[in-house]
Amino acid sequence: MMRTIRTLAPALCLGLALTACADADAPPPTGAAAPDTPTATNAATGAVGAAPAGGSAPASAEEVCAYLDGQLPTLKGIGSETGVMANLTVNLYSWYEKQGPVPTGRQIDDQTRRECPATRTEVLKLAGMESFERL
Prior knowledge:
- The protein is mainly alpha-helical.
- The protein contains 6 helices and no strands.
- The longest helix has 23 residues, at about 1-25.
């Protein structure tokens, strides 16, 4: 059973990443904002880690650390590095999307090294990673 989960988790991550990339090129749904509105412009031109034209600021280091602290019990309960990495990939990205611009792994590393090095170390250890750049 665990072998199946370990095999499927990376495939799930890849599938989610491909789906996210495919959605970026999809035409806007009916009733979406007009092309010249800030919302459509942000979605079309915003790069990962770049602030949208509307001025939305990235999540602060304090917010990131509070989120990761809150996730520790869940991550500890998963029981496998692959499962933790899959959980982080999906949930951390989703959390960032709700906050504003999604930072790069290096930016997450910089924030967590400064603000919550112990939490960062524990999360990365649970995921079997040395850096958030692997996500």
